[in-house]
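Hello,

Our lab assistant flagged a job as stuck in the queue for most of the afternoon. It eventually completed. Since we weren't sure the result was trustworthy after the delay, we are filing this so someone can double-check. Below is the sequence as submitted and the structure that was eventually returned. Let us know if re-running is recommended.
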Amino acid sequence: MPQPPDDLDAVAVRTWCSLALDALGREREAIDAINVYPVADGDTGTNLYLTVESAAAAVEAVFAAHETGTTVPAPADVVRAMAHGALIGARGNSGTILAQLLRGMAGVLAEAGDADHLRRALAEAAASARLAVAHPVEGTVLTVATAAAEGAGAAEPGAGLTAVAAAAYAGACTALARTPERLAVLGRAGVVDAGGQGLVTVLGALVEAVGGRAPAGPVLRAPGGTPPLTGACAEADPEGGPAFEVIYLLEASDEAVARLRTRLDALGDCLVVVGGDGLWNVHVHVDDAGAAVEAGVEAGRPHRIRITHFAADRIWAHREPVHREPAQRAVVVVVPGDGLLGLCAEAGATTVLARPGEPPASGELVDAIRRAHAREVVLLPNDAELRHTAAAAAEQARAEGVRVALIPTRAAVQGIAALAVHEPGRGFDEDVVAMTAAAGATRYAELAVAERQSWTTAGICQAGDVLGLIDGDIAVIGDDVTGTARTVLDRMLSAGGELVTLVLGEEVPDALAAVLEEHVREGHLAVDTVIYRGGPRTAPLLIGVE
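-- returned structure --
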């Protein structure tokens, strides 16, 4: 029988990720079944599985890059990949906290993987996770993580890696069994904390990875079947909690994230912000999903936006039933070119033309809302500069009795993506969620021609140069439209994508679309391309990547 390793090396981390993923796959449904806190939506096991799946995929990618047959990746590279993969793939409240736990561990294990560093890693993980949660609650995964760190710290001096991991696991199991005593909602349901159970499963996989044997630790299920519904994050919430879960990755500075925390904490609850070094994963429960996304837009660049509308029976579990009459709904869209007016009108939208240098005023937007003759309106400004104008128009329309949802689209291609998933037949909230998610998942770019020599974020441009702007920033300076467009597409698709939208300017030949469509097809077989004509005169090409 092979001796247990004395160091959590690259292969051991890879094994840990694989075993954790397998274990969560086996326990996923059981963990979902005991999920009553912070929201009884039965998805904690699934969210943890998806988070670890992303971590494991990142680790495998590092190994794939070193498949020479003679070398393995450096342990530091592997633990950092594990943490980064969890961060970008984190799902739900517990998945986001687990991502921060792994990030905290990785910061220490990147130095070394011996027993003493594992003790420190678990302590750092527990501390950093608590800092990431706006309002820590005992009896949750945070309590279990702290107990794991304390268990590892109490292991005998000089204990080996396996003994320290086993001590951490034992401490976590003891704390997990006591979570119903520390959190009343768990005690009433007769279950342990689902997120804590998931962490115990991950720690059990660590013990198996370094010791060669899986520890015993059965999932504790709810007696008598499905647990009762509960309120959201606050212990005694008679209103049942916010309606939406909003999660997104955010590229932003530490200072911007500090301001974002304050704003989101005022908007909702269950706020968890994890990450660092310019990349963050934001999780919050709110009633106004659009406001949560807009807060991210103001802080930096949000992407991979996921919005979940909690089940209606949970939202109204502690409220009087609400009866609404069927409402006529409309979409009001600001478009930058005459050609897109017809496209949006054909899709059933009320349009407002934004002429070059003449953005619409709030009064024009209010008039468009009135012209829509609808009791429910979705407003798509399609320009970051129109955010406050659109907000003022929405507020005025609400004062007139119209229910208005403002989706903070920043470009026409985001508005097209939102309009494409609009379904008047479904509930208003569900429609807004779908449209917001579609817009948020669309990166945007445009080509413009420089009018004079100037400094840009991509270098010095000369008059007549073709500029490629990605998400509002100049990223490419080129000599011609076709070459610049190819470069912009390649940069955008390097981060992945399923659909490319091209909107040609009025004076751009159709041949450009054919060339770019072929370029996408040759380099990205699984990516589809759709083409429209009618962009603004000032931009030869608008690009969207979903």
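-- support follow-up --
The delay was a queue issue, not a problem with the job. The result is valid. The first strand starts at residue 244 and ends at 251. Residues 218-239, 311-326 have pLDDT under 50 and may be disordered.
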